[in-house]
Design brief:
By secondary structure, the protein is mostly helical. 73% of the residues lie in helices and 0% in strands. Pfam families: Complex1_LYR.
Amino acid sequence: MTNPLRGEVIRLYKNLLYLGREYPKGTAYFRERLKAAFMKNKDVTDPEKIQKLIDRGDFVIKELEALYFLRKYRAMKKRYYEPEH
């Protein structure tokens, strides 16, 4: 019998893998860390615990998106505004 949350976990992994392409320390570093995090929790079977881990992964996605937007904002600000000294 398969777990009904399996699809959500796979979706989360794919989304994080996609977002990891722009990670500041590199794609390979991000991929290794992502795989290690998922492998650490591979034996979890309690649906409530799995849902908590999925929620944490969604939080990480939001944090990564914020990091990328901030980096893009800083780059644009640097290009179009004079430095304030």
